[in-house]
Amino acid sequence: MKKIIRYSITAAVLFLSVGFIAVKLNSNKKEVVEKVYHKDPNLKATVQADTIKYTPFTETAAFLGSFVPDREVIIASETTGKVVRINVREGSQVSAGSLIAQLDTDLLQAQLQSALANYDNAALTLRRYEQAVNGVTKLQIDNARTQLLTDKAQIDQLRKQISMCSIKAPFGGIITSKNFELGAVVSAGAQMAQLTDISRLKLEISVPEKNIMQFRKEQALTVVTDVYPDEKFQGHVDMIAAKADASHNYAVKILVTNNAATALKAGMYGRISFSDVTTKEAISIPRSALVGSSSRPQVFVIENGIARLRNIQTGGSNETIIQVTSGLQPGDIVATGGLINLTEGSKVSIAK
Fold first, then answer.
1. Global pTM?
2. What is the per-residue pLDDT across 80-95, written as a single tens digit (0 to 9) for each?
3. Quick one: which of 38, 109, 147, 197 has the fewest CB in 10 Å?
């Protein structure tokens, strides 16, 4: 009986505790809700706005790209050998034909001397046979001539192998990486260094289908950069891709001559722009009025003091304004500033 009473008291205490906690949590929730800011439905957001009308519009097409070297090559060894001389380090400026590294040629030089001696002996034997009055057959003369040609071929082969041991720069440029050390044994095909020529650079840009006809081969263009904002670099169109990529963009390469005073480097950004000289009347909005995404542009149109989201379609653009091809009509009032707190249906007042 005592156990039953004890259990009953414990259950009652637990029930009362749970009830107290629930009441306390509900009370705390009400306090939190009361402290949370609730927007006053009658409060109006102040915005800047423009009335839509047809205005002169000049479209500007700008294309951003990065510079790549006009020429760049991996210098590899054509033969196997031990490095006995190094003439460069990373950052070295070299000219065409400069020695990059020398491989050991002692064994090849010895073989060449032997081949030269054999050649001289074969030449002497052939002369003796040809000058002999009798006792020499035609077969002996033919064999002597064949031996002379064989020795000559061996000499040419050894000289070629010796020349391959002198690893040289195919053109002038800068050694941008070096992958060998003195005493190392390199194999044929081993990548030893990278040579980069930035005396001329190519600006690689991606051009949409609608703009590609603005470019033509050898067309002179002006290139500007953020690194040298006051400088203009002259270039010309070197290549226009014959095939678009999956996004219907075409690769265009613009060849730019570098100079020492304002030296550009591979990897820097550059841009070009075209301005349509034909100014036309069009509906346009400031860039600040645009909300949504590039794939689904929208604007807030103010109707009777209420902000309404409206889908639009855009056309050309320049640095400050965007052409609207559909979705707006002359007389529409579009919010251009103070959009941060606007939502569909917000009450607004237009700043004077």
1. 0.62
2. 999 999 999 999 999 9
3. 38
